[in-house]
Amino acid sequence: MKILVFGASGATGHELVKQALLQGHIVTAFARTPAKLTITHHNLSVIPGDVVNYKIVADTVKEQDAVISALGAASPFRYDQSVTDGVSNIIKAMERHSVERFIYMSFAGVKDARNKAGFLIRHILSKILATEIRGHETRENIIRRSSLQWTIVRPTTLTNGKHSSQFRSGEEISTNRFTSTISRADVADFMLRQVGDNRFVKKEPLVMY
């Protein structure tokens, strides 16, 4: 399949690109700082650009089979309007070009999920990362109002751990642990599974160990 990854130069984006190529997909990596993406492959195209530029976004979205977003704010302590504008541009471009499948990485700290995500996220990170969480909640609402076949993925605290392919996922899963984590590699694994799986279309699954 032809898969477009936004935020490809970030840590999770890097994993998405790497694993998608290993699975045989044709990957387009959209990155504001493409030099940070250290992968080369004959099935990889790298597009330098900013998601606030609608024309570049629309030209890149055209003829893709699925779009994945691992976009993140420049700082978790400052609201980044450009990310929200970028997600709006992605949705507008996908609807214009009839590209339906959209997988967005959010966070388990959003208000209607944090009670399932462990003490640390529920009582501490939800306050420390309140600005970042507000951004995710805003973007989730924009996605829900779209006509796309979307999935909003809500991982718990991200780590740089190994790719194990052993994790739990679903809208009703929860943890009683103080802290709940998942590696970026396993989040990427789960997100890529959604490309060909309709089980979580228009749903908001949590992902955790």
Sum up the structure in keywords.
209 residues, alpha/beta, Rossmann fold, eight-stranded mixed beta sheet, two-stranded parallel sheet, 34% helix
What's the structural blueprint in terms of helices and strands?
Elements: E1 2-6, H1 11-22, E2 26-31, E3 44-48, H2 54-61, E4 66-69, H3 81-96, E5 101-105, H4 119-128, H5 130-144, E6 149-155, E7 157-159, E8 168-170, E9 181-183, H6 184-193, E10 206-208
Parallel strand pairs: 1-2, 1-4, 2-3, 4-5, 5-6, 6-10, 7-9
Antiparallel strand pairs: 8-10
Helix pairs in contact: 1-6, 2-3, 3-5
Can you tell me about this structure?
The structure is a single chain. The chain is α/β, with parallel strands linked by helices. The protein has a single domain, classed as NAD(P)-binding Rossmann-like Domain (Rossmann fold, 3-Layer(aba) Sandwich). The chain contains six helices and ten strands; from the N terminus they run βαββαβαβααββββαβ. The protein has helices at residues 11-22, 54-61, 81-96, 119-128, 130-144, 184-193; strands spanning 2-6, 26-31, 44-48, 66-69, 101-105, 149-155, 157-159, 168-170, 181-183, 206-208. The strands form two sheets. The protein has an eight-stranded mixed sheet, with helices on both faces. Strands 7-9 form a two-stranded parallel sheet. Strand 4 (66-69), helix 3 and strand 5 (101-105) form a beta-alpha-beta unit. The longest helix has 16 residues, at 81-96. It is globular, with a radius of gyration of 16 Å.
